[in-house]
């Protein structure tokens, strides 16, 4: 499989559905916060927060988490940690935290994000929202909210482009190396 799997409108619809599911599952926004994982999880969390505000009223707080120092594969494959800011200016303790990321693959990114969150406090729950779930889990982690399930082979890559970072919206599957996340 190769090519575009979601365009801008399909991304918007998937996020709108996820926003409705988050509100429904949590009985509103009381005690709810969203935390995007750098890089593309941050604008996705911001978009979801705006959509939740349209559905339910006041937007839940939104933050950003950097997982670079929590990764168990830093240095593997020649990669080194590029530090991004963790911008969480609210207490996560006793809050329902929805972690947001673009692609769920091995589960290692999510494990790292949970470690980073727990260092900041003790949430009452942690839920996971992802735009794409491509399978191939190495850890027992699953998403609570999924925009699209995309079965891939380990040698394919899922590339998410977002207007805020890349100047355009789209999700693509490309032939490439195993860029485990």
Question: Would you summarize the structure shown here?
Answer:
With 181 residues, the chain is of the alpha/beta class.
Q: What would you note in describing this structure?
A:
With 181 residues, the chain is α/β, with parallel strands linked by helices. It has a single domain (9-153), classed as 3-Layer(aba) Sandwich (Rossmann fold). It contains four helices and eight strands. The chain has helices spanning 8-26, 41-56, 108-120, 163-166, and strands at 3-6, 32-37, 62-65, 96-104, 125-133, 145-149, 156-161, 170-175. Strands 3-2-4-5-6 form a five-stranded parallel beta sheet. α3 (108-120) links the parallel β4 (96-104) and β5. The mean pLDDT is 92.
Indicate the topology.
Layout: E1 3-6, H1 8-26, E2 32-37, H2 41-56, E3 62-65, E4 96-104, H3 108-120, E5 125-133, E6 145-149, E7 156-161, H4 163-166, E8 170-175
Parallel strand pairs: 2-3, 2-4, 4-5, 5-6
Antiparallel strand pairs: 1-8, 7-8
Q: Measure the end-to-end span.
A: 20 Å
Number of strand segments: 8
- Low-pLDDT runs of 5+ residues are none
Helical segment count: 4
Per the CATH scheme, the topology name is: Rossmann fold
Largest sheet: 5 strands, parallel
- Give the overall shape, derived from the CA principal axes: globular
Major β-sheet strand ordering: 3-2-4-5-6
* Number of domains as seen in the coordinates: 1
Q: Could you tell me the strand content as a percent range?
A: 25-35%
**Alpha-beta content class:** alpha/beta
Helix percentage range? 25-40%
Give the overall average pLDDT.
Answer: 92
CATH class: Alpha Beta
Helix and strand element order: EHEHEEHEEEHE
Instruction: Tell me the Rg in angstroms.
Output: 16 Å
């Amino acid at each position: 499989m190769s090519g575009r799997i979601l365009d801008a409108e399909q991304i918007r619809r998937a996020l709108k559905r996820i926003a409705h599911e988050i509100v429904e599952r949590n009985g509103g926004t009381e005690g709810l916060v969203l935390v995007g994982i750098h890089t593309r999880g941050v604008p996705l969390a911001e978009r979801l927060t705006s959509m939740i505000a349209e559905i339910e009223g006041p937007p839940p707080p939104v933050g950003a988490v950097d997982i670079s120092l929590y990764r168990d594969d830093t240095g593997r494959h020649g990669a080194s940690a590029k530090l991004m800011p963790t911008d969480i200016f609210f207490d996560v303790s006793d809050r329902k935290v929805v972690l947001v990321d673009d692609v769920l693959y091995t589960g290692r990114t999510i494990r790292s994000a949970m470690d980073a969150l727990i260092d900041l406090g003790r949430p009452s729950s942690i839920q996971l929202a992802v735009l794409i779930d491509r399978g191939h889990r190495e850890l027992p982690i699953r998403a609570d909210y999924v925009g699209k399930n995309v079965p891939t082979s380990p040698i394919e890559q899922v590339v998410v482009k977002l207007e805020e970072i890349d100047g355009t919206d789209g999700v693509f599957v490309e032939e490439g190396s195993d860029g485990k996340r």
